[in-house]
């Protein structure tokens, strides 16, 4: 019996696929091109389902609610579109955003919105705005009574990252972070730069905290 390897021209280089395909073709008349195509299809199948599995893991991070603290936004004039931006960034981080609500810069309104979210059982409540030094920047004061435990590591990480990124309002934020019941609550500043930088900092930390909370 003639070896299938001898049929492969020496000038073209003998490959494993060529030898294997020739042997199979001789034994069962299978076209070597079909073997190569089947191998490619198998690799594509595995890659596709691996990506799907990764997407499912990301989708299971938790539920989130966004509270935009802004007098104009509360009256339907959110020209900066901060709510949709935060919702988009949360979704990219794997959170399901239950809702985005806008409230005036009033301590009672802010506290009621945060407390309603906590009672609703979301995993993360992210407030945007009201963390500066102005007279109506009262989000930290509204948030503090709701927190069972402060997470100063997150607070400092947001401020440090904000300063490094050039988001001055984020770096000088008085925003708080902590646990209320089974919910993580975080305040961030409301410029687009502070939102983007704050979300990049908060998202991985939030995932870690939520995972730890769920163990109890």
- Under CATH, the homologous superfamily reads MoaB/Mog-like domain
Q: Provide mean pLDDT, rounded.
A: 82
* Helix content range: 40-55%
Separate helix tally: 9
Order of strands, main sheet, comes to 2-1-3-6-5-4
Under CATH at level 1, the class stands as Alpha Beta
- Could you list the spans in which at least 5 consecutive residues all have pLDDT below 50? 1-27, 52-58
Could you say how many structural domains there are in total? 1
Question: What pattern of helices and strands is seen along the backbone?
Answer: HHEHHEHEHEHHEEH
Radius of gyration over C-alpha positions, nearest whole angstrom: 27 Å
How does this model look, in words?
With 216 residues, this protein is α/β, with parallel strands linked by helices. The chain has one domain: Molybdenum Cofactor Biosythetic Enzyme, Chain A. Helices cover 53% and strands 16% of the residues. It contains nine helices and six strands, in the order H-H-E-H-H-E-H-E-H-E-H-H-E-E-H. Strands 2-1-3-6-5-4 form a six-stranded mixed β-sheet, sandwiched between helices. Helix 1 crosses helix 2, helix 4 crosses helix 9 and helix 7 runs antiparallel to helix 9.
